[in-house]
TrEMBL record:
PROSITE patterns registered for this protein in UniProt: FAD_PCMH, OX2_COVAL_FAD
Keyword annotations: FAD, Flavoprotein, Oxidoreductase, Signal
Name under which the protein is recorded: Glucooligosaccharide oxidase
Organism expressing this protein natively: Guyanagaster necrorhizus
Cofactor or coenzyme needed: FAD
Amino acid sequence: MACTCAAGLILAFFTSLAFCQSTLEHGLNDAGITAIFPGNSAYKNASRPFNLRFDFSPAAVVYPSTVREVSTIVHLGYSEKLRVVARAGGHSYIANGLGGENGTLVIDLSNMTALKYDASSGIATIESGARLGDVALALNDVGRGLPHGSCPYVGIGGHAAGGGFGFPSRMWGLILDRIVSMTVVLADGTITSASNDANPDLFWALRGAASSFGIITSMEMATSPIPSYAVIFSYNWQMKYESAATSFIKFQAFAMTDIPAEFGAEVVLTSGGEAGNVTFAITGGFFGESETALNNTLVPFLAVMPSPTNVRYTGNGTWISALQDLGGGVLDTHTAGPDGTNTFYAKSLMTPQDDPITYEASEAFMKSLAYDGYASDTNWFVQAELYGGGNSAINAVPVDSTSFATRSALFTIQVYTATYNNAPPFPDDGFTFLDYLVSNITAAMHTGWDYGAYVNYPDDRLRDWQYLYYKSHYPRLKAMKAQYDPTGVFVFPIGIE
Ligand SMILES: Cc1cc2nc3c(=O)[nH]c(=O)nc-3n(C[C@H](O)[C@H](O)[C@H](O)COP(=O)(O)OP(=O)(O)OC[C@H]3O[C@@H](n4cnc5c(N)ncnc54)[C@H](O)[C@@H]3O)c2cc1C
Ligand SMILES: *[C@@H]1O[C@H](CO)[C@@H](O)[C@H](O)[C@H]1NC(C)=O
Ligand SMILES: *[C@@H]1O[C@H](CO)[C@@H](O)[C@H](O)[C@H]1NC(C)=O
Ligand SMILES: *[C@@H]1O[C@H](CO)[C@@H](O)[C@H](O)[C@H]1NC(C)=O
Ligand SMILES: *[C@@H]1O[C@H](CO)[C@@H](O)[C@H](O)[C@H]1NC(C)=O
Ligand SMILES: *[C@@H]1O[C@H](CO)[C@@H](O)[C@H](O)[C@H]1NC(C)=O
Ligand SMILES: *[C@@H]1O[C@H](CO)[C@@H](O)[C@H](O)[C@H]1NC(C)=O
Ligand SMILES: CC(=O)N[C@H]1CO[C@H](CO)[C@@H](O)[C@@H]1O
């Protein structure tokens, strides 16, 4: 336990824990900050993770409303030698918003969601507890937008901490690329700001590994005018695994041509209708001039493909209807009701653009899905998100300008599998299916293939995660961690050690 009060040395463990808790409770009480402790009837719900594969008991879940309150809480945690963690939208795949283990002091940011837009600079100041759907709506009202993922309930705090990809990202970059400055609370409770001018080193670390260095309370983000036209599209095929393997290679080759930045897409793979098949789809968003411009972009790819089984274009042509469609029909999280939960395991594989997937690896991948996937008793999908390719704004950012480690990926392949009823327990063969899926790809590539993994799709079972998530930036991040968080306040699975 991290809770080691001086008095605890001569007291039994149980007493020590109670003593710490009351110190914490008093401190929070004195500061007038809402807090939920074990034993409170709201505790179970307050400490519920999005992924029910996990079950953690935080020291307390605390609800600040101001930066100063966040500072007070962090300082209390620091003094009590507790691990402290921020929870924004609570959508971490491995419940890192609860600290990823028991006994963490959880700072829930759900009461810090303000958004203020300055028309003269185009900069929005957004508190980090805001959800993506609400941010999209508020910005749309002033004709502006940001690049981010599609789930309306994801918190901007956790999203921007480690990346933030959506279909507009090939045009506008990752959401962390839009941060101009941020207000952050450091391990001892100090409130500071980080930008290119103020604490540039910290600013570098926070854009890619924020959770290891502080609690971001708000961010100034450079917004863009919303595109005059937007559409979400989806082309679907039912295929034998060999055709799916060839189709993936065709899409990969197409992606590396001079495709417009306004074209965002992913390959979506789901279970086929019979063993040996997979369902292969290209889904994306187009933020260019018109539907004709999208169709013209797709011509060279569709020309080498069989006729699709299904084609779907959605939305009324506006940016917000495209985002709403991607978000499953709703963006306003206040009226949409509470978000659901799931019981799942996920892994990611970032493929290098200068060393793309070979036909052999694509075939091993599709064969795994067509047989092991078809037979699996879990509910899976694969999304190979297009990060790179022609004219990608993600990869135009120099790799060392932020701590986000991979600016040369062609695809971020996400493999995800859940229980059918969304409830625990998660079966062991769900793990092995995904482990093999990824290892079948890497084994078919040459030795030393320099792939990576995406820190916002964290995998609690990944080996060599320091390198796969943080790549060449790990040593610098580690040195900075010793400087900014010497006593280990912000410590959690896959965080900088
Ligand atoms: C349904 C779903 C859809 C998704 N879609 C996409 C997608 O399209 N694109 C994409 O890129 N990702 C996507 N993700 C992944 C998502 O980006 C991450 O799960 C993200 O970290 C979630 O942020 P959160 O604030 O909701 O989660 P939380 O669990 O609250 O936080 C996640 C991590 O960030 C830390 N953190 C949160 N707030 C702060 C803060 N203010 N300061 C410092 N650290 C903080 C937490 O401590 C934790 O370690 C999706 C996830 C889910 C569950
Ligand atoms: C449970 O927690 C969620 C946020 O995590 C909140 O929206 C909801 O109101 C809570 N439900 C109850 C019954 O307290
Ligand atoms: C953490 O807490 C949960 C819920 O109380 C409990 O089931 C689990 O065993 C605890 N884990 C550890 C490692 O103590
Ligand atoms: C949320 O913040 C507002 C002020 O910003 C405050 O009035 C309110 O009491 C806070 N709610 C909680 C639950 O702390
Ligand atoms: C499997 O794919 C082949 C090739 O597209 C198709 O002819 C067949 O109908 C598919 N099987 C099922 C059950 O969908
Ligand atoms: C674009 O392609 C889709 C799918 O083939 C088709 O339904 C649509 O009519 C085309 N739009 C234009 C403007 O040509
Ligand atoms: C398009 O859809 C959006 C989102 O549903 C809606 O707000 C808007 O009014 C619609 N615009 C038109 C012109 O239909
Ligand atoms: C289709 C395929 O090649 N599947 C293999 C994936 O890896 C596991 C473990 O090595 C093998 O058992 C599968 O045959």
